[in-house]
Write a structure and sequence with these properties.
Strand order of the largest sheet: 3-2-1-4-5-9-8
CATH topology: Rossmann fold
Structural class: alpha/beta
Number of strands: 9
Length: 232
Amino acid sequence: MLDERDRKSEETWDSIAESFDLTRRKPWKQCIDFIDTLSRTDMVVDLGCGNGRHLISCAEHCKEVVGLDISKELLSITKKKLEEKNLENTILLHADMTNIPLKNDTVDSILFIAALHNIKVKDKRIQSLKEVKRVLKKDGTALISVWSRWQDKYGKYFLKKWFTKKGQTEFGDIDIYWKQQGLDIPRFYHLYSKKEFISDIRLAGLEIEKIQDIKLHSKKHPDNYFAIVKKQ
């Protein structure tokens, strides 16, 4: 059952789903590299699977895949793609990332790509990371990515916020507007510092095996952090 915050998020992503799919089709290299390390017999979960650009690669590589997203429209787009490719080893779930409807210790690996930062409130974000730990098997791994707070595009905004101390939101919170195909729709983001990203992962009880600063679009400062984490 989705609460009011989740329903608002669902409405936002449903409203941009078709436009999002048109502009977000190429998988990220970091994700493909991670998927290539997984066993063919693995059961994998893609949290915040969106339009399926990484989930399909998982389904082509691994035995069983679960895609979870808060947007029914994005899940519908992903379902059509899976049908077109005759991939029958995937289950799609409409659910909240802070309450994953899977049993403890059942998942070999998880992708949690560009989705953690869309969850409002720090405790909720940490809860979603605790859910990653809960459903992973012992020694299971996850690839988690978030947007960087100090990237070229938004660094000045947060520098100004730092000095003015204006607003009652968490430092790092920002509305980023989707402006493709004539739309103008705000999406909530909590942009991370590397220190905060590391802290939240550790607070959830996960071990960091590797963390990278990545420039996907920025020229000067990293715009994404990617962490490979493990359940001990």
